[in-house]
Amino acid sequence: MLKPQRLIVDDLLFPGKMPSFWGYDSLHVIIRLLTFAATYYFFSMLFITLKLPAGVYAPMFVTGAALGRVVGMLSMLIIPASLLTSEENNIKTGDRLACFALVGGAGLTASVTQTFSAGMIAYGLTGLEGLLLPVLLVTLISCGVGMQLSHNIYDSCCTLRHIPLLLVPSSHHALDVTAEKLMQPIGDRFVIDAYATKITDIRRVLEGCCSPKDDDSAIAVVHSKDNPVLLGSIHHRVLEKICNACEVAGRKEISMRDECFLNYIDQCPLVLNKDANLQKIAFLFHTLRAEFAFVVNFGMAVGTVCRKDLIKFQQENVSLY
User: Fold this and answer.
1) What average pLDDT does this structure show over 276-285?
2) Residue 294's beta-bridge partner residues?
3) Which of 43-47, 152-156, 236-240, 303-307 has the lowest mean pLDDT?
4) Contact assessment for residue 289 and residue 307, using Cβ atoms and an 8 Å cutoff
5) What residues have CB less than 8 Å from 274, skipping those under 6 apart?
6) Prediction pTM value
7) When comparing pLDDT for 94 and 126, which is higher?
8) If you write DSSP's letter for every residue of 32-54 in order, what string do you get?
């Protein structure tokens, strides 16, 4: 353990017999590697709690490489050479153990960080095409198992430090929570755009539905009040500027057919079905980095869901996550 991390990686991935630092026989080397992996993993988790960043990616790769080398050595002791093909027997022992170490490092790193890039980085260390399939396969399996057990290390650290972060729920009970239960009724958050809308009505919508400090607020553009089919959305600050320009020009009404209004309408806003479950909603917000979405029922705008509401629900229902 007195060696720096870079030299330890060189030892673990070395295609040959490990230096005498790790022991002189297989049993001694296995014990040293297991002791190193357990100690290194423990201190890596301990260092994460420090205010000074100590890194996660490299320590997990080193720990996984040590465990992978141990698995390789045990497999060579358990599986007799007679069960191996002639091509497998021709592979040098050191090369085989180095492959186990590389695959183990990629697997543990992928499971902890839940990133597919761990496999690509591990493959890039060698560039050997024969290692591409096992590295990618182990990476996929590790990511899947890690996602089923817990959140990735970065999201877990943010949660423990009470940093507002939207997580994708893992509990099956989250499937019972739908957008209809999470949404806020759309109320007056609409602009009648079929023909014309009075400037005074738009002012009333802006004053009643949008906070001056809310930069993510959007107004639903619907067909009519009686038939609220969602046609798009427009940011409340943009709509306010349009109203100011119309008042300066002496206009009392605006229509979606007006070029000054039509060019600013987002005709493809993020839309959720009222029956969409919490897992799908959180995944969409997490993947698209969305802040706001409209809830519809057969195309009719019925409510809104924003990231702040999802985070608040997450803090009140920790058991679902």
Assistant:
1) 91
2) 271, 304
3) 236-240
4) no
5) 178, 179, 180, 183, 295, 296, 297, 302, 303
6) 0.67
7) 126
8) HHHHHHHHHHHHHHHHHTSSS--
